[in-house]
Amino acid sequence: MPNVLMVAEKPSLAASLANILSNGKSSSRKGFNGACSIHEWTGSFRNQPAKFKFTSVCGHINGLDFTGKYNSWDRCDPCDLFGAPTEKKEATPKLKMPAFLSSEARGCEYLVLWLDCDKEGENICFEVMDAVSDQIRNIRSPSVTYRARFSAITDKDIKHAMNNLVQPNENEARSVDARQELDLRVGCAFTRFQTKFFQGKYGDLDSSLISFGPCQTPTLGFCVQRHDEIQQFKPESFWYVQVTIEPELKLDWQRVRIFEKEIAMIFYNIVKDQREAVVEQVTSKDSFKSRPLALNTVELMRCASAGLGIGPHTAMQIAEKLYTQGYISYPRTETTTYPANFDLRGVLKQFERSSDYGEDARNILNDFVTPRKGTDCGDHPPITPMKLAHSSDFDSDTRRLYDFIVRHFMGTLSRDLKYKSTTTTFNINGETFTATSNVLIDAGYTKVMTWQAFGKNELATLFQVGDRVKMKEVKLIESQTGPPSYLTESDLISLMEKHGIGTDASIPVHINNITQRNYVTIESGRKLKPTTLGIVLVHGYQKIDPELVLPTMRSAVEKQLNLIAHGTADFRAVTKHAIEIFRLKFLYFVKNIANMDSLFEVSFSSLAESGKAHSRCGKCRRYMKYIQQKPARLHCSHCDETYVLPIGGIARVYRELKCPLDDFELLAWSSGNKGRSFPFCPYCYNNPPFNDMSRASGCNNCTHPTCQHSLISLGVSSCIECEKGVLVLDCTSSPKNWKLGCNSCDCIINIFDDAVKVSVEEDTCECGSQLMTAVYKQEKTPFPDGITEKKGCVFCSSEFAPLIEKHKAVENRRLNSSRGRGRGRGRSHRGRPKVPKDKMSQLAAYFV
DNA sequence: GCAAGGTC
């Protein structure tokens, strides 16, 4: 019997598709990666009996990244990224997706791809084929691999797809490859360039990363555009005639308002001395407010933000949780219409006995209305409740979001809100005024969606044509137009959706990004207010190349990519062309960065004027400034050079000692009390002097043969906790505290408390460690017979044992040492490197 | 330390 492997885009879909195709007769087991399940049954394939295996991936198997040095910010020019080699890497290594798929494909003859029917899904099809090609022969053959095309997760649609299998569309898949490549190259090049440029110049930038992206930047652009409208807004005065009649009712003027005072005065004079208003016309009409469409992701995010004050990122996290706990259906969908066979009543019935929703649910069941027809995007059914929850099941936000989903669902099955609108027209000496009265006829869906309830404004009196109504007061009122408010998050989501910026799944990510990067802040009412940094960036792009921030940029790129998807253009040609355009844009941006910089200059303070004098520069001997804001840096304003410092912790001046190589004053970095610490030279830290010393190294990694702070002078033994580290004597807080610190991991061993001097000797113990000497004052010596100085091994000498803090770890090492010794000595990077005989020739070889 | 797109 042939074996057929079928793969869906996510575990939940594999389960429901298997259930449909097996008529509920599949058996399930968990896959070895812990995330995916396999559903198996026997059925028929191409008119013969076959064994089916249905499993899934978790989205993309691979992601795109640069190779080797192109991932380093320091080892390549951002401009090189437009031509740098790239490679596919496992998107989530811990899922072991390729290995999992390959293992499940063993023994299978056929592959049927049930990935989502969009371009990303088509791309994942080829990722899956690639992953199983070592198990299934001729994977590219149209009689081996099939593609199921389905537009709804219904019995009928899925079985129809199974009976009408087609082939995966390579063009669509390639268009996604092109998008990935373009986004990677453009995003990383711009991000690295502008981050380095501005961080190297300004001390008070409140962002450790100044990112650029084809989605996040236009998203920020929307927020800044509104900010600009507010800034440019000029209030205008206007006037209107306000008539109050008896009984107390203010009428609406047909001219609404007039922007010239003199003209407004003319109308005021016409009306002001009148005593009566004559009713000219009374018209009534029935009006409706539509019940909502079934709920999709974007609408859920909009409502959560605008109605519940829950941001889209959080809203989706909560929805995800509600989904995995079985309270709601799958929360990521664009579809706003219920499938034909959806058991709407069945869902409602679950709420019949609820104290919160019972009465409404029963009313709706008794007066069932067919829901409105929305759009079927062929992905997932709309978001609906799946089972009744008790309010004690959830925290406050979860409860509110669940309540919204339940009420929205019931709202879609309710009647429209119906009301009667009556407009009365008054004539006052030739000027027309009106009064409108709305009378509720049927609250409809607002009975459940109470926040949309109808604000009544029924008139106390009903008028008839010909009535003469007594006027109480006439006023000429002056007012001013007001500026628009900042963009609400809900407005922003709508704008992104309209311009095709991001997808339902990535919209919250982009909004989150621009807040995390300090480009916008979220104000009350979830309004997005751009920060100085956000404003300056967008204005800068507008000065240099407005297309970089235009919302149409994304759709223009999509248009190019669609040429690939439709097979009308070659993948290589389109990608090459698009990359070249952005490369030129990048070069132009770099060349004209001064235009953006002039805006930064006004808003931020330069490194030279921020920070405080700290330690001396080795080149000019002047004091450099210490900028503590992240990322911490030293800046020499005379040499106009910036040196980055270790992340976190503090870097203090280390006894005014100097690096023998470059004359820079040494600093002692410390991550905090009892934490890691080491001395370092700020110049060497940024520009490693030796080939075997990597960037961002302290003196404890320096192979200078004679400097008293180097690894050569102070290294004691290989680390007891990690593979490649060396324990180095750390004197930075001596004589208060002596310790051995690993130059690679976090391992710290406190030694020789109260000693006045500790040193590392030239000779070694038989265990391979360097011998050490500890000197104490007479009154504090721990050694017997009043001896104040002793030489020995921190691991082997019995009189040292009580003076070493990390006994347990040390013991472990002892146990290991006999095993590890030979190995350790043989490897040059382990243990303390031997001091070379000819120091000068060794030194010469080290210099780059 | 970078993008955007899937999804866990």
From TrEMBL:
Going by the UniProt record, its keywords in alphabetical order are:
DNA-binding, Isomerase, Topoisomerase
Q: Which InterPro entries does its entry note? A: Topo_IA, Topo_IA_2, Topo_IA_AS, Topo_IA_cen, Topo_IA_cen_sub1, Topo_IA_cen_sub2, Topo_IA_cen_sub3, Topo_IA_core_domain
User: What domain of life does the UniProt record list for this protein's source?
Assistant: Eukaryota
Please name the CDD domains in this protein's record: TOP1Ac (cd00186), TOPRIM_TopoIA_TopoIII (cd03362)
Record bears the keyword Zinc: no
What PROSITE patterns does the annotation carry? TOPO_IA_1, TOPO_IA_2, TOPRIM
Q: Which GO terms describe its molecular function?
A: DNA binding; DNA topoisomerase type I (single strand cut, ATP-independent) activity
* GO cellular component labels: nucleus
Q: What is one process in the GO biological process aspect for this record?
A: DNA repair
Q: Where is the Topo IA-type catalytic domain?
A: 169-587
Q: Which reaction does it catalyse?
A: ATP-independent breakage of single-stranded DNA, followed by passage and rejoining
Q: What is its EC number?
A: 5.6.2.1
Q: What is this protein called?
A: DNA topoisomerase
Organism in which the protein naturally occurs: Clunio marinus
